[in-house]
Specification:
Layout: E1 4-11, H1 17-31, E2 35-42, H2 50-59, H3 64-77, E3 81-86, H4 95-101, E4 106-109, E5 123-124, E6 127-128, H5 139-142, H6 149-164, E7 174-177, H7 180-188, E8 196-198, E9 218-221, H8 230-239, E10 245-248, E11 264-266, H9 272-281, E12 284-287, H10 297-304, E13 309-312, H11 317-320, E14 327-330, H12 335-346, H13 349-366, H14 369-386
Length: 395
């Protein structure tokens, strides 16, 4: 069965990992003969100044214009199913009852924890925070999680309204998370487990050539920010002065040059080809996260290059990195444990090879685009089949 699929997404203003995944999902559907279309708003449209911020405050709660525009697109495109990516701040959950009234099956991809936590990260000032769970969004304001009372209030109010009016629970047909950890959090907050599937992210396995090289540095890929554990990475590098470390990512303002040890090289943002060379030439990758990640693509990208991953034992990371099989896990924030793990793996090329090959095999089996497509189409089939009324038609 070939479907017409309409994606709904509010872009973040800067191209994010979530939007990379959106592009990949739309592409695999198109490659398999489905017709796809994107309804989107871009946070860049907000501009700067007080008025755009006030507008975003209200549009995140209810957007008349988005309802009108989206309804027009649905009536013209006549999709079989709609996939929701991100609705804030310019689209808003207010479009969901309208889609329900039109009889549209709606699938929502859970790329973060925003349905429960106003900022979507369970993170406040670099620390794990779950105080908003159980319908306590006001903690976002009390703690001023966004370091702006106006912004924190906006985040809290839009979450409260969506929860109080049950905009998600009564108007989304089915959800899919990226990990079992994420699914379990949703279930604990009252979302029925029978309508939440799990589809991990995907990556295309690399060419097998040049994958036997053991690598000559320890790598980090991603945003250099506190919650990602960059300070932990730099401290471990300082404690291992004889091991070269390299970072593929742009430094943030809080990372000053005098905090970077001499054995650390910051390469900045790398294009696709340069990043592939980075993976090929590293010995292993470290992901020292201090926060609940969604599904970091860096893990499966490294594994596709037959590189082990050392990751924090936090959130759903242990579902992706299998300890002592495809990599090693350590207690989040524990510098000494990470130092010992790094030293052990650096000196053991046989284990590096063994973990790397196991990781690559796992990518091919579980994280390929083909695997993602099969899981997604199964969800679409079941969602459309069980929808009482549906205005779309077969493509």
């Amino acid at each position: 069965m070939k479907y017409k699929v309409l994606f709904v997404h509010n872009k973040y203003g800067v191209h994010s990992g979530e939007e990379v995944m959106l592009d990949k999902i739309m592409q695999i559907l198109a490659d398999n003969g489905h017709e796809v279309r994107l309804f989107s708003k871009d946070s860049k449209e907000l501009g700067v100044g007080a008025l755009p911020k006030i507008g975003a405050f209200f549009s995140g709660i209810f957007s008349f214009s988005s309802r009108i525009e989206l309804k027009k697109v649905v009536e013209e495109f006549q999709p079989n199913i709609i996939q929701i990516q991100n609705l804030f701040p310019l689209i808003s959950p207010s479009v969901l009852p309208m889609l329900n009234q039109m009889g549209m099956p709606v699938v929502m991809r859970l790329s973060n924890y925003r349905l429960i936590c106003p900022n979507g990260l369970f993170l406040s000032y670099g620390q794990i925070c779950e105080k908003c769970r159980g319908g306590h969004e006001y903690y976002c304001v009390l703690k001023n999680c966004e370091n702006s009372l106006f912004k924190s209030l906006g985040y809290a109010v839009r979450n409260f309204v969506a929860r109080y009016l049950r905009l998600y629970k009564e108007n989304v047909t089915r959800y899919y998370s990226q990990t079992e950890f994420q699914k379990n959090i949703m279930v604990s907050e009252g979302y029925p487990q029978e309508i939440i599937d799990v589809i991990p992210n995907m990556t295309s396995p690399t060419n097998s050539k040049k994958l036997l090289y053991p690598g000559d540095f320890v790598g980090y890929v991603g945003r250099m920010s506190r919650e990602k554990g960059i300070d932990i990475f730099l401290e471990v590098a300082r404690l291992c002065p004889d091991i070269p470390f390299k970072i593929a990512g742009n430094p943030q303002a809080y990372v000053s040059p005098n905090k970077v040890p001499d054995n650390v090289e910051i390469l900045g943002h790398l294009n696709e080809a340069a990043l592939a060379e980075f993976y090929r030439n590293c010995r292993f990758i470290i992901l020292p996260s201090l926060c609940y990640e969604g599904f970091p693509s860096v893990i499966i990208e490294a594994m596709s290059f037959a590189k082990p991953v050392i990751a924090s034992r936090i959130g759903g990371l242990s579902e992706i990195v299998e300890d002592e099989q495809t990599g090693l896990l350590f207690e989040s924030g524990n510098v000494n444990e990470l130092r010992m793990v790094v030293a052990r793996l650096w000196e053991d090329e046989d284990t590096v090879y063994s973990f790397g090959q196991a990781g690559r095999a796992k990518v091919i089996k579980e994280y390929s685009p083909e695997s993602y497509y099969k899981r997604l189409i199964k969800i679409y089939d079941e969602t459309i089949k069980n929808q009482p009324c549906q205005t779309g038609r077969e493509g």
